[in-house]
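Structure ticket #2291
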Amino acid sequence: MTYRANPRHGAAWVTGASSGIGRGVALELARRGYVVVASARRVEELQTLAGEATGLPGRIEPAPVDVTDREATAKLVAEIEARGPIALAFLNAGGSFDDPPGDFGAAGFRKTYELNVYGVVNGLNPLMNAMKKRGKGQIAINGSLAGYGGLPGAGAYGPSKAAIINLAAGAKFSGDRAGVTIQIVNPGFVRTPLTAANTHSMPGIVDCDDACRRICDGFERAGFEIAFPRRLAWLFKALNVMPYSLYFALINRGAPRRRKG
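Resolution: structure written out below.
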């Protein structure tokens, strides 16, 4: 049977918890009774977040870390595990950084990949080692509908999320054999500081609190993928099984010039 974590099994670890989806999921998990270890680089925001959880069935413990630092991330996982098992992890930290015009693939591209891809891998490795050793655990990785297929103006963000979706699918095979549940979370547009910078239309945009409830509901249900809003997710899936000639024509007709999911 597929393992599903609950607060009795241990703590929940959430990365990128200082704002947006990570912050909202940390609070929602605390409402559901978890001791949530919340990580990000910004210490003050984590402390504020912990205060907001006062009075909830669970609690939030700040644990600052830069997930792009592989050694520091592994050390933090070991420290949490020394106090008790991580039953559920949400590897959420991510962002989008632009390159200067005419210099695609420069510092912004590399920074996006360091956070969105290596920031996940740096947490995934020690988590998998610990969870495989005890034969159970649950890890969810935050992807995006933008990772389903190439989109105009997606920069490094879309390709980095495509890599994460592929990574999660590959990790599921070894996770299944070891009793470790792997999930991918693929949201569409969510009202967060990341999407606040968008100037284009964002079809089906979901409020952050609603998105976080959907994500946490997905942690509790069976299934590899947590994708929403459903209509937009199915539209993106359908587009990506079409011949490329039709795919490009439809995307060029209706897609915004820039997407951040």
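Closing remark: Strands lie at 11-14, 35-38, 59-62, 86-91, 137-142, 180-187, 225-228.
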